[in-house]
Every structure is written in structure tokens, then in C-alpha cells.
Amino acid sequence: MTHLHGAGEEGAAPPPPLEGFEGFEKLSPHHPMGIAINHRGIRLVYDGASHMGVLMSKEELESARSFLQDPSKTPKDQAGRSLRDLVDRGFLPKGPLPSIGPSSLAEAAALVDRYTSQVLIRKFCLKVTDRCNFRCTYCRGTHMTSPGPLRHMDIHTARKGLELYFGMYSRVFLKLSQRARAWALRVCPPGLSWYGGEPLLNFQTVRLSAEAFLNLPWGELGIPRESLRFSMNTNLSIMTDDMIDFLVRHDITLFASLDGPKDQHDLCRVLEDQTGTFDTAFRNLMRIKELYPRYFSRRVSIFGVLTDRHDVQRCRSFTESLGALRSVHFPERREGVFVRDPQGVIERVRLQGERMIEEMLETAKDDRSFPASPKAAPLYPFARMSFQRPLPYDPLKLTLTCPMGVDNLMVLPDGNLSICHKAEVPSIGHVEGGIDRMALANLYLSYGETVTRHCSSCWAVRLCPVCAASRITGSEERWDFINPSPAECRAIRAETAFRMRCFLALSIELPGVARRIEELAKDPSVNVGVLTVDSIERAAEDEGI
């Protein structure tokens, strides 16, 4: 049985198509977590349960099929014996996963305790106001039928939230060795992010909370002030010189909203009377660049949103020409919508997949920076799968989301706590009392029940991009987790299988590039994932800090 970067036969007939496109096939109806992906005669057999991949020739795959159909038969060749050994260790288990995440409240509470004591919080946000002076057509707030009172956060609430964050960060930071602390400060230093609404509508709280954040006793932890970080999202509607000076003085990473040139930006980013906002936003953005050009190129990123109405190329070309640090566009997001055009995604993969793979290979061959580029980032999850041994099944580790309420936390204007900046409900506590352990445990249990019902037979379960926050719908009074529709799941699997095939193609055609992607994907200082005490210690040791 061959492993990654091994040789295979050339010109073998492709397997039967899976879900409407060639190059993919399910292994067995009794093993729903397995899939075989073919590129030029080499098959990557992937098992979503154990997150393991094994390369096989056509003959080895047929031997595997025979064994899976009747495991009682003694394998006749080495490939069959090797497969039986892997199956005995957890590869390609029969049937669906028993559960995803905790299956009882006691298990959920234990999971919360483990996360709380071991996970270093990566992002902390103050939503300093609900108010926004724009009425962007794609914003959830614009379409809420009952948005409730529009609140400003007061400085008392902000300070209590910062004290809570300091306690969460320091609790885990102090468990680290000195060299691991140095690594953590480089990769995940203490940080404060401001969100809204439009946060600069409450500039007083922004300004005072920055001072309060800097004045927390970081020095007692051995953390110098220069290690502290700030970031802010803004629609650029207001930007006085005092505000610009504040941004520059604190070296704040600024995410500025601009969709494209005037006619494109004003399609969706409008005021209440439907007039466009480009002139104001662009003038304020250019004012920052005029006053502080170096800050603009080092700390300002332009974020845009694209809908079916936008000219994608014009929007991207315009924002990229402005000289900011980054220019990124995101697809429009609607509550309860996970894939905008599921059939279109499947058709694109089916009709254009071969061409897109060839174009990727050409780019990777000619561009040495490809492994570290955004074009390669979607391949990182596949580089992290195991090719040596099956990962043990552990429902408490297979939660399909970042550690809710521990890895990321947002304080709302009234002091309620939410799991992250993508979801304001349900509340998991308040700044006056901290995180409610049992409320968070119930959240994990509810989420586990939702995804177990829907995802326990899906081979792409460990690779699905749909997180817990994006599944939450409703209000504080009545909320729930929802799953993608069957059509959306087919599209997600199609895209996932295509990207896996891209990684397989790189491994076969350009193994050096694939190895570099593997190195970057497994380097937590580059591909920053959930950070635990153990993972930080290992990373620091690997780097020799």
C-alpha cells in the first residue's frame, strides 16, 4: 500500500462519478465516511472518521473494496493485509459516527472545563454600539424586523469586560513555560477589537477602553506594552483628524469597508434614504493615506462585500489599486444561507474542475510564493490529515467548531457575552458575573445534537467550513442551531472533494510544493488555529525558542 508522494499507474480508467462529477467515488454503502479521489490513476482513499488518507493503486482499491464487503475473509495480498491492520486501528469504521461532540450535559460541562483551563483566547471584542448610520442592503441589522433598542456601551461595561478577558488570557498564559510564553506573545498576543454597528459612533468608549486595556496589569505577567494589539472595523462614515491620530498612535489594525468604485460601492452601501455612501467613505480613507501613508500601507486593510449585482473584477481591481496592506472581498452572507448557489458550485466543479486544476499546477510551478499565498490556503486542511495512522475517534474532540466562548468572546453593549463576533445570541453570561458555565455547556450539547443528526454519515465532517456561529439563528428569546440544506451539503462536499483532489494533484505533480504546503499548514505560527497549552509548548520546542 503506497503513501503520499508515492508512484502510481498512468492512464487508468477514472472511477464512477460521485455526486455528478468525475474523479470521486464512495467506497461502500456500509462505510459512509470513506471516499476515493482519483488523479491520473492514483487514488487517495480518505476516511472522515479517522481523518486519514492512504494512496492506493487501482488494484489495491479493488482489494480494499473486497475486504470492506466481507472483512471475515483473509486478505490474499500485502495490500489487503495492510488495510486490515489499518481498519483494526480505526480506519474506515462501519456505519455513521455514534456522536459528534458531547452526548450528555455532564460531558459538555467537562468539555467546557477542559477548554477553559487549556485554550488561550485568540480574539476578544467589544461591540461598543448597536448603532450604524448606514443601511447596507446585505447587512443582517438592516433586515431585522425587531432589532430592539440601539445601545451604546458605557465605559464601566467595557472595563468589566476587559477584566474578564485579562483573567481568561492570564489563566492559560501563566501555565506556559518561559519559552512557550515568548512564542505565544509572538503568535497570539493580548488584543482588543472594536466592533459595532459603527464603533466610531461611540468614540468616547473606544478611546477610554484603549486606555483601560493598556493599564491592565500585563507587566505582572511579563508582557510589555509593545506586545499589546488593537483592531477595529469601520464603515468610514466618520473619521476626524483626532480619530486618525488615535488610530496611528495606538498602531490599530483597521479593517475599512469599501466595496469598489463609486457605482459598485453605492449599489448596496447606502443611507436610510438610499443615497450612496462612497463619496464620504472614500474621502475619509484617502485622508488616512494622506496624513499617514506608512500607517496606511502597514495597518489598513480594505474589506468589501460582493453580491450578484457587483462587477467582481472591477471591485477587486479598484480596491487593490489603493495601496492598502490588503484588499479582500467576501461573498454576501444571509442568515440561514450557507451556500449562495449550490447547483452553481457543483456545476463549476463538474465543468471547470479539470481546467482549474491545470491552472493551479501552472501557477504553483511558476510562482515560488504559491504555498504561502491565499490561493493555497484552501488546501491547508488537507495537508493536516494523517498519512501514518488513524486518528482515534473522540466525540469530545470532534466538535466541528472552535471552542465556543473560550477561543473567541464578544461583549455586547449591555454587557452580555456571546461566543464570537459572528453571533450575538444566545447569551453565555454577563461581564458582572463572567461566563455561565452551564449555559455554555448546554450550548455545546445543543450543537452536538444538531450536527450529530445531520453530519454523522458525511465523509467531509472534519473539513466542513460551516461553524457553530454561522448555524445560529433567531433571537435571544428564541434561537436554535440549524444545518445546511441537502443541496448546500452536496455543494460543500463537491467543493471539499475538489480541493482535496487539488492537493492530491500537487502531491503527485509537484511534491516539493505539496511538502511546503504541509509544512506551513502544520506550523501554528503561520496557520494559527486553536492554541492549547500543549500545542503552544510543542510549537515553542519545535522552533527552539
TrEMBL record:
SUPFAM superfamilies xrefs: Radical SAM enzymes (SSF102114)
Molecular function, one GO term: metal ion binding
Positions of region (Disordered): 1-25
InterPro entries referenced in this protein's UniProt entry, alphabetically: Aldolase_TIM, MoaA_NifB_PqqE_Fe-S-bd_CS, rSAM, rSAM_sf, Sulphatase_maturase_rSAM
Cofactor dependence: [4Fe-4S] cluster
Keyword annotations from UniProtKB, A to Z: 4Fe-4S, Iron, Iron-sulfur, Metal-binding, S-adenosyl-L-methionine
Residue ranges constituting the Radical SAM core domain according to the UniProt record: 127-296
Gene3D superfamilies the UniProt entry points to: Aldolase class I (3.20.20.70)
Family: Belongs to the radical SAM superfamily. Anaerobic sulfatase-maturating enzyme family.
Cross-referenced PANTHER family: ANAEROBIC SULFATASE-MATURATING ENZYME HOMOLOG ASLB-RELATED
Protein name from the UniProt record: Arylsulfatase regulator (Fe-S oxidoreductase)
Gene source species: Thermanaerovibrio velox DSM 12556
High-level lineage: Bacteria, Thermotogati, Synergistota, Synergistia, Synergistales
